[in-house]
Structure formats: structure tokens, C-alpha cells
Amino acid sequence: MKRQHIVAGNWKMNKTFEEGRNIAQAIADGLPESDTIAILATPYIHLSAVSTVVQQKLNLKLAAQNCHQAKSGAFTGEISVDMLSSVGVEYVILGHSERREFFGENEELLAQKVDIALGNDLKPIYCCGEGLAIREAGNHLSHVANQITGGLFHLSPEDFSTVVVAYEPIWAIGTGVTASPEQAQEMHAFIRQLISDKYGEEISDATTILYGGSVKPANAKELFSQKDVDGGLVGGASLKADDFLAIIDSF
Ligand code: 13P
């Protein structure tokens, strides 16, 4: 089974409206048509404008960085899946470590967000990953297993099949320290085995598992050449069109 290769850029809370539109256009202009899907996960304010840009390329897609778990209502400052879909968003990042750490998101809440996203035909990019203390204590595999199980394993096989998983070790995010290709491969193989145990080999083989954490043009090729690494979730390096395009080019 050939898995979908994906390189997703998570802009986090960066770029003014004008800057965002310019970088999105530069990426669209430079992106070769290929089997690799490039995803731009922009702040909400950019989504509508970047939506018209991503339509210029078949393999360029739009993501949000979060959504609310309710359909609509009195939730000041929040955004609903209907709103995201209405401007052409196809993917939504859920459970990023920054949301878990700074906004208290846990598996129980994330399971609800996953459900409402799937119910609205948005594909979740579900993040997991351990902090340094957990890794040093040797508990990284069980920690990630709990995150995956708690947020995703209530899904039907059909729903699970649309989920993208992103492994992002917190100690590698924005630090310049990257997981070694061996560390990434070990965790990705572990996650794939978990999925296989729950949903079977066919679904597990078809699941795209991204690595995130200081992915750069200089290290992307080696990371992406690992057997179970199907692409990247890129923060800092996605803010420069040339770097992001070079990372996509690593496949
Ligand atoms: P960096 O690529 O800046 O380390 O960020 C990774 C990340 O958190 C992507 O979601």
C-alpha cells in the first residue's frame, strides 16, 4: 500500500495578513505538481485569502491549527468546523503540544474535537509527542501510546482511515534539536504497530505518520527516508517559502 506523503507547514501565530498571502503565493508558484501533498496551516485570519491561493495547485491544501468541539454557540473567540469548511479548509491540526501545554487540551477534549472535525469532513492531523523528562525517564513510548489511544481509538476504522498522525517530540520543537532519524523511525514504527493492533495491518499501512520538530532543508531528506516517516509537520522553516519548498523537494 502506497502511503500519502505530506509536508504540512504550521505557521503558528506568525505573519500579518499581507505577509501570509505573499508567502502562500510564493509556495504555490514554486510547488511542482507531484504525489506529495503540501498543506498550509495558517492562522484563522489568513484562511479565506490563502484558500484562493491553494486552489491554484492540485497538491496544495489548507489547514486550520485548531477548532472548537461544539457546532456553534456562545463561545467567544472560538471557531467552528462549519466556519472552517465554508472557506475551503480540508485539514485541522488537533492536539498540538502547544495547545496541550498552554491551553490545557487533553485526550478527552481532543477526542471530541476529532469527532466534530470528522463529522464535518475535515481531516484531523492529530499530534502526539513527549517532553524531555518523559524521554529521559524512558517513558516516551507509553506516553505517546496514551495520547493516540485516548484521542483516536474510539473511532470506527472508516473514520480512522482519514486521520493523519504527527509525532512531534516537544524537546525538538523550535529548539534546533532534531530527533535522530533512528529515534523518529523507532517512534513511527511503534505508532504504526499500535494502529495495526487496533485497526489491522491494511489501515495501519495506509496511515500517514508525519515527523515534526526542527525539520529543515538540511535534515528533511534523511528523516523522510525512514521507512515509517511519511513526511513532516514543519514550524519555523515553513515561514520561508524557499525552505518549505526545499523540504517538500526532499522526497
Ligand atoms: P519547528 O519546526 O519550528 O520545530 O516546529 C515544529 C512544530 O511544532 C510544527 O507543528
In a nutshell, what does this entry contain?
The protein contains twelve helices and eight strands. The protein is α/β, with parallel strands linked by helices and 251 residues long.
Structure, explained:
There is one protein chain. This protein is of the alpha/beta class and 251 residues long. It has an eight-stranded parallel beta barrel, surrounded by six helices. Helix 1 links the parallel strand 1 and strand 2. Helix 1 runs parallel beside helix 12, helix 5 packs across helix 7 and helix 11 packs parallel to helix 12. The longest helix is centred in the last third of the chain and has 19 residues. The structure holds 1,3-dihydroxyacetonephosphate (13P). 1,3-dihydroxyacetonephosphate binds next to strand 8.
Biggest beta-sheet profile:
8 strands, parallel, barrel
Radius of gyration: 17 Å
The CATH superfamily is Aldolase class I
Number of domains: 1
- Quaternary state, please? single chain
- Name the hetero compounds present: 1,3-dihydroxyacetonephosphate
Low-confidence stretches: none
Lateral arrangement of strands in the main beta sheet = 1-2-3-4-5-6-7-8
| Fraction of residues in helix | 40-55%
Portion of residues in beta strands equals 5-15%
CATH topology: TIM Barrel
CATH class: Alpha Beta
Question: What's the number of extended β-strand segments?
Answer: 8
Report the span from N to C terminus: 17 Å
Give the structural class: alpha/beta
Q: Note the run of SSEs as H and E.
A: EHEHEHEHHEHHHEHHEHEH
Shape: globular
Mean pLDDT: 97
